[in-house]
Structure formats: structure tokens, C-alpha cells
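Case study.
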Amino acid sequence: MSAIRRWAIALGVLLLGRKQRQPRFADRARIVPPGDPDPRAEWLVLLLLLAAAGAAVGFIVFYSFNHLAHQTQYLGLALGLAFGFVAAALVVVGKRLVVTEELEEDYPLPGHPTSQEELEQLVEESGDRFTRKRLLLAGAGAAGTAIGAALVVPALSLGPLLDTGAFYETPWRRGVRLVDGHGKPLLLDEIERETFYTAYAQGADKELLGSPIVVVRFEPSQLDLPAQRRDWAPGGVVAYSKICTHAGCAIALFRKPTFPVVEPGPALICPCHYSTFDPTRAAKVIFGPAGRPLPQLPLAVDSSGVLRAAGNFSGPVGPSWSGVRSKRPRNPS
Amino acid sequence: MIRALVRYLDERSGTAPFLNKALRYVFPDNWSFLLGEVALYTFVILVGTGIYLTLFFEPSTAQTYYTGHYLPLRGHQMSVAYRSAVDLSFKVRAGLLMRQTHHWAADVFVASIVLHMLRVFFTGAFRKPRDLTYYIGLTMLIVALLEGYLGYSIVDDLLSGMGLAIGYSVLMSIPFVGGNLALLLWGAPFPGSPAFESRMYVAHVFLFPILIATLLGLHLFLVAARHHTQFRESRRTTEKKVVGIPTFPGQAPRSLGLFFAVAAVLFLLGGLVQINPIWLWGPYHVAQGTNGAQPDWYLGWLIGALRLVPDFDVTIGHYTLVPNPFWGGALFPLVVFLLLYLAPWLERRLTGEYGFRNLLDRPRDAPWRTALGVALFTWVFVVFLAGASDRVFVSFGVSYEAQIWAYRVLVFVAPVVALFVTRRLCLALQESDRLGRIRKRAEAEARGELPQPE
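After joint prediction, the assembly is written out as follows.
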């Protein structure tokens, strides 16, 4: 009983008691100008701090539930509010409880001419005993450059700097079968007109830029391929690299005109920068930023009706680099 | 207690005189001076939430299969990095809050740096003796852009992969050395060697944050060493004297309050507003892409630039000299940042003003600087808008190709128009200021008061 009474009294004193301390530096000129107390602002700060504490406790409570629906939302709300209440308390402190003085201060001098000269002098005099400064500087330069180079050289282990041959490698060559994402071979008869298929080289890593192709079938009469590619599209099926020659994204869109008379023709489109290729005309660029057509893969059909590559791509796969057109793609094996 | 603390510190560090000075350091009071502080405090939140994320994220592109509770992904092949990011979103309690807050903070970080830079630019705060401070700030902006890009790239979701493919292609497109540099960084043709993920990770969680922190320290040191700039607000604010609120007690609760306000906004965003729901994008595979892909806002100008360039590679005969992504992805940002870096020097050359400047201009007071700045930022903004053409097409049905053609024209026309309109506007505002002063004086005289000199 008496313990409860003592606690109640202590709490009462804490809540209601006020005290202004006797200033210890009363005999000196004040640094911070005086201001009047603002009891209501103090109450407000106290309330805001308690609200912050409450919100923070709320965060801990929400955290301790194992399967709480919308837990992220409650956690964010609680922590955000806790910080928000502290921010509000500090704003009240800044605006109403501490003195806002306006001080003047001199901007620093533009420079310190004497010190600058002293520095110069110091450096100059320190080198007094050297009589062949330039030669020694050249020596230091040589040592510095060589050591710098020696320290940079190991960075070359990061990758093959000079051998760009890997850019030309693709897993395709004459006879490689076209398979879908699950490894099932693509049959000519199963390819429907004006539908978009993704295929890979059988047995190859699907994550190589040279592996994925798009396969689309048209009426053979719709196709307008260059003369030397006439036999690259058995049954009107054409295949192009699925990797955009502009910035390496996957050609994931196929535009199939619903009303061919009023709409633009079929197109393969990259969703990154909307490079647009005409699949009936050897993937010629008809809009967007790509600088060269999609490489075409020559196709053939074997005796069991499976689509196979009849060779490698017509050009290098993927985004371009200086000199990209100088070589033909090749198969590493 | 205060006495004991002060004595303890001073006897061991000898910093009492310094602290006395620092606590009375003067901050001129203007809301726009807080933009840089917002960036600083956002960085603190980024470091805090980022450290939490590293405790769960596994930076590895080793392939695995998802077996967790999120059904749409169950059984899908994905990298360990992506799986751990999904797990830290769904399995780790408070993980999603931290991840989303981190992502929001990254967006706010760059936004506040850009706004801060605009304030510095249009008030002429970059002039001597603060040009070095400005260069360091610009460098931080570049590092922050790269840091943000790496941050959403290491997750290895579909958008990460598409973004990396674009970054790879831009690097490849640098004339002559691009292909070599790309091979060096990625270790192998895209998607690169398995070590590439570690390289991005160490850059994102160590190298770049350390770099930003170092530059930040230098930036703040230089700000304090030369003191803040100020607007010409009263007769007391001059080139010689700075007027404002002292660090303590006036500025401290305001600044600390701003920190907590920034933290509050970021955690509320992180908890309540979804950002980058990687489980909806799915894991990245080279052969996959998604329509309507958009990067974080601060790379919008680059995707816009890449989309605007017409379809050409610069070739000599059969030799490709400059692949297309170079123009929008490399040259455009290079030119923009070069102009920003050159601004203090250009201004000195063009105006012949080499002196120290502690007082800020109002934008109207420097019509040419303001007009040229507005032209530059209009140029960047038009390109930024072009990056959103696909979303405009989806939302409003405006033909994508027509929009791109319109932007291809606007990108040349808009900056010129902006230049002349802004200059005219500045001059008109100056004129209205002058008339206002004349009217005030006339009214004062009419009331029989002595005219007050401005």
C-alpha cells in the first residue's frame, strides 16, 4: 500500500512539479539570449514523445506476431509514425522551446596569403639539397608509373580483354535441332501461322545470347527474303535470333495485324526500346533504334518433320560493337 | 553532468574551443537549403536498411528451384540471388519493409540530390569559392546513379536482367574499346561469368557506398569551411557577413527533426506503398522480356534517349564504327554531365566575373544563366518524357511511333524555346521588381515619409 502511495506521489511530482534551475553562470553575460517558458509546448512535446514510444512498442508487437496479415503495412505504419512523432516533437522544440537567435558571423577570408607563401617556402627549402631535381623527378615518375601499371595489370584477370572471339560463338550449326523451353523438338507441322514461338538449340545452354530464336510461320508467298536465303524458310517458317541487335533484350513481342488492310504488317518488337523488325523481309528494321537486322537462322526439315538449323546465323548475335560485322558467327565445337 | 561530460571530452580530445565554435556556426535560414540535408539523411537510411538486407541476400547466380510458399513461382528455375530476394521479402519478418524502404530511399536519394543541384545551379551557389564543393556534389550524383542501377540489378529479377542487358550493350557500343571493356567487366559475353554477380555486389555494398561517404565527408567539410551562401534578404546579409541561426540550440532540433521526418516518410512509403514487386516480374532468363518495362525514375532519361535515336549504326563500308546505343546511352549523359561540370568555368569565362561570391542570385537576377540552365534541363526532361511514351500509348492510346517522332523534333525545339521564354520571363520579373520599388517609394512619399533606401 505504502509503496503504491510513494509511486503515486512520485508520479504526481513528475507530472505537476515545475522547477527552474538557478543559473550557475548568473554573474556572466549570457551566450544564449533568455526566453520565456512555454508550459503548453512542453506538454505537447511530452505527448508527442509518448506517442512515438507507443508507436515503437506497436512495431515490436506487430513484429512478434508470426503470421499476421498485412504485417509489412503495420510495421511500416508503426515505425513511420514513431519517427514522425519524434520529428514533430523536435519541430515543437525548435520552434517554441529553444531560443531562435539570429547571429552574424564573418565569412572566412578568401585566403591566407602569408600561410600560402610559408607553404611554398617550406616546400622549396626542403628540396635545397637536391641538385638534379628534374632527373630525380623523372626517376620518381618512372617508378610511379611502373608500380601503378603493375598494380593495375592484375585487373586484366577480370576477363579476356583482347580476345573478342567469344562474341561470335553460337551453339548453332547445320543439323542442330530446334527445341522448345522443355527440350521438346519443334515439328514443322505443329508450327501455326502467325504465332510466335521461342526455340533453343538442342543440348545448348539456354542462357547464352546465341541460343534463343524466335520462330514464326507465314504463307511462303508473304515472305520477301533475299535471293540467297530463298531456301532458309521451309514451309514459310522463318527463324531469327531472339536477342535484339540494339541493346540485347529479348524480342518478346509479336505484332499480328487483326485487320491487315488498315493495320501495319506483322512485326517482331523488342520491349526495351521498341526496335521493330519485319519478319517477312529478313527482319529488316522498320522502326526504333536498332542499327542492323536480327540475324536469321537458316532452317531445314529432316525426314521425321523436325525443324533443324541448316547452318549458323546470317550475322553476329546480340548487341553490336565496333567491328561487329567483320566476321561470321561460328560454332565453338 | 554536463560539466563532467564536457570536462571528460575536452581533457581527452582538447576540442572544447572547437566545439564552442561549431555549436555557434551560423546556418542561414531558407527552406531550399534543406534539400541537401534530405539527401544526407536518406543516405543514412540507405546504409541502415542496406546492412539489414545484406544479412539475408545471397549474391549468386547459381541456378536453383523455388520451393517456397509463393505459389506462382513454385518449381521455377531461378538464380540463388533472386530466390533469396524473394525469401527475404516473404519469409524474413520485416524483410519486405526494409527492402521496400531501401528502394524508396534510393529513389528519394537521387531525387533530393537532383533538386539540391537545381537549387545550387539556379542561385549561382556553384561560383567560387564553392566550385570544388559543386564538382564533388556532381560526382556524388553520378556515383549515386550507378549505385542505384547496381542495386536493382543484383536482384536478378526479369527487370534486373533487361536493365543489365542494356547496360552491357551501351558499354559494348563505345567505339573501338567497348567490346573489350564489356568482356573485362562481365568476364564473358552476356550474361557474363558467375563472378559478375559478386563484382556487382561488392561494388554496391562496399566500393560505391564508401566512395559516396568519402565524397559526402569532403562535401560537408568544404561547405563548413567556406560557410553557407545566403540570399540578399536584409541589409545585414552581405558578401562579408553571414546571418542565420546557430547550430545549437537553434538549428539542431530543426535538422534532427528533418532527419526523423525523412525517416518517417521513407518507412511509411516502404510499409504502405509497394515498390518493385520482384515476385511479379519473375526470374530473369536471356530469352525473356516484358512489355512496358520501366527503370527507376532516375534512369528514365537514358531509356528515353536510347528510344529516340533513329535506326542507324555508323559504318565505314562493312566496318561498324559506332553502334547505335552509344548516342543515347553514353554520349548523351556524358554531354549533360560535361556541361554541368563546365558550368562554373563557362560562367567565369562568359561573364568575366572571377571574384568570390557568398551572396546568392535569385534566378531572375542572372537571366542568361537561368535561361541556359532551363534550356539544358528542358532538353533532359523532354528525353525523360520520351522514355514514358510506351506507358502513354498503353494508358491513352496515342500512337507510339507518332510520339517518338514528336519527341525527335521537340528535343531540338524545346530547349531553344525554353531558352528565350525563360530569359524574357527573367527580364519581365526584374522589370516588375523595379516598378514595385518605384511604387513603394512613391506611396511612402505620398504619406509624407522619408523615402527609405533599399
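Observations recorded in class. Chain B has 16 helices and six strands. The longest strand of chain B covers residues 241-246. We will return to this complex in the next lecture.
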